[in-house]
Amino acid sequence: MNRRPLPIGIEFFKEMIDKRYYYVDKTLMIKDILDKAGKVNLFTRPRRFGKTLTLQMLRTFFEQEIGEDGAVIDNSRYFEGTKIAEAGEAYRSHMGQYPVISLTLKSAKQPDFAAAYARLREEIVREYKRHAYLLEADGIRERDKGLYETLMDREGSRDDYATSLQFLSECLKSYHGRDVIILIDEYDVPLENSHFRGFYGEMIDFIRSLFESALKTNTNLAFAVVTGCLRISRESIFTGLNHLRIISILDDSYAEYFGFTQAEVKEMLDYYGIGEREAEVKDWYDGYLFGDTEVYNPWSLIYYVWDITEHNTEFPKPYWSNTSSNSIVRELIERADTAVKSEIESLIAGSTVEKPVHEEITYGEIYKNQDNLWNFLFFTGYLKAVSRRFEANVMYLTLEIPNEEIRYIYQNTIREWFDEQKKDYDTTPFLEGMRTGDCEKIENFINGQLLGSISYYDSAENFFHGYLLGLLGGIEGYHISSNREHGSGRPDLYLEPHHPRMPAMIIEIKCAKKFGQMEAMCDEALRQIEERDYAAELLDEGYQKIYKYGFCFCKKICMVKFAEEILK
After folding, report:
1. Helix 327-334 crosses helix 371-379 at what angle (to 10 degrees)?
2. CA neighbor of 499 nearest in space, from 482, 478, 480, 481
3. Tell me: the pLDDT tens digits for 108-165?
4. Considering the domain boundaries, does residue 380 fall inside one?
5. Do 472 and 359 fall into the same domain?
6. Which residues 6+ apart lie within 8 Å of 336 measured at CB?
7. 328: phi then psi, degrees, rounded to nearest 5
8. Co-location of 280 and 247 in the same domain
9. Range of the domain at 412
């Protein structure tokens, strides 16, 4: 069977159709936009959930596109056989009837305002060039053509570019005789970038002016669709925009148009001959709820189907983990207190947390309280809501990790951030305690580290084994072996000094389920070292001192017991 190719990384609607990529038909979104008649529609969805492709689809449908020869381009063929084409003449009559301004702000990630502003200006210039046919139009005044050329040649002032979308709308209305549709993709990327780079104030002033003139005071606007990952407060970016309609992941409307539904996933898996993997796909890539609609991560699913059908792998992978911006989430988690870290651990273990949700956030306020962490995790796709309730006009969401792909991110990426923080710790007290048999010093260091970490305990003893091995890597003058045969068994860790007068060390690790068991298990660890004669080889080598350590871990608490053997 000659199947359609999978659209790996394809974001342009025309390319999707022209090259016959597998396309999940989302064209009925056009019907909903026309029926609901929202003037300015802001859609907030996680990264890689099809926002860019959706805007490209809207542009292709609505735009009266003018070619380089000045003739109108007929784009109707891109919608042959689609759901919107079958929805009736009332909707088909809007095809190819509007001038469209289309911008993406996703590339505005430069290190300073001048560079980021230049990138945004370049995006505006690109759109002016796309509509350069206006310079040949009789209905455009010569003075306006002069300003148009100034903006297109990158010679306008910052104020000129702040109102450039409004001016372009006026010119397009004069030429086409119809109000303009404005499409803006990833509006929050320059805001997030500028927050981290330290020029948030300058960027928000420019974006606010750009949006106010284009979306608030623009009398030539038919409607606008804006997409982003987060809902930024009206007061900061959409000042006074009373006709703004925000459609977040909490809303039922438009829920099925971003991400794949269960029926769409089943059809796709069957088409590629891997329908038997439906349960596996559900565990790994399902679990998102937009309103009450269950959706799959489309980016990950497409990559999964590709890898399985191309025999690149037999197992699911976390495709989404390296695609989205983690900067905000990382910084919030690194600032989190002990209680928040404990709640993250419970999420990893499969539990839920209940938190108030605040849909309107400004980047300048994200550190004011810990609740903002949960808002960012929720709206960026790291958590899903399984239920909601209202109390004193505040919405509370019960949140959980949506699927195995996101759980992988928590278990690896997020935990690695904490591990990187721990690298800055001075391990001198721990190593000194190990060299002298000072159990209290060892315990104090380890307990301090563990309380500030994110851990999970699917393989608790292996986790703590690796943790101690990492700490001991900094001890000078020793060769460390792990789970190597010694005596009649395997000690967990075995430290041979380079000099025979230095103490050799044997470490046995236990894990307890209850704190009350810890002391007895430390004793058991020491007894195991004796009974299995782990020290025999060291004594044969002629080491004069052997330090024996029994470590026991329970949750985030460590207890250590010590015994010493001296060669007479």
Report:
1. 150
2. 478
3. 999 999 999 999 999 999 999 999 999 999 889 999 999 999 999 999 999 999 999 9
4. yes
5. no
6. 344, 370, 373
7. -65, -50
8. no
9. 327-417
